[in-house]
Amino acid sequence: MRNDRNTIAKHLDLLSFSPDLQIVYQEVTRSIIEHYINNQEWQTSRGNIKSKAFVFDIDGVLSLQTINLNSFGVPNRTVNLRDGYAIQLAVRKGYHVGIISGSNSREYLKRLKLLG
User: How far is CA 25 from CA 7, 35, 64, 66, 95, in A?
Assistant: First the structure.
């Protein structure tokens, strides 16, 4: 929203391990900047900003930054009850919620389905 080029460059550098993620980040960033440039309402009162969707990464955002592995080498992800409540509330209020993960954890998929 602030079009902070230094922060955007740092984020892209952090994502340098994955060109695909850099592309996704650039597209989302471009869309946000374009939205706020074209929507003059946000400049007068940030309280007027309307979001329609939220997208979260699981690892390090919806779970801790460190993941314990079980004896089979499978990650034991943590969940935050407040995150779950916020996701349920957002869905009930009509927001779209997207989740990004490099994993295909059946347990986490089950939890996300329960959250809506």
Answer: 12, 15, 21, 23, 20
**Amino acid identity, position 111:** R
Q: Are 77 and 105 in contact (CB under 8 A)?
A: yes
Q: How confident is the model at residue 18 (pLDDT cuts 50, 70, 90)?
A: confident
Same domain, 55 and 91: yes
Cβ distance 12 to 4 under 8 Å?
no
- For residue 74, the enclosing domain spans 51-116
pLDDT on residue 65: 65
Q: Could you give the CA distance from residue 34 to residue 4 in angstroms, rounded to a whole number?
A: 13
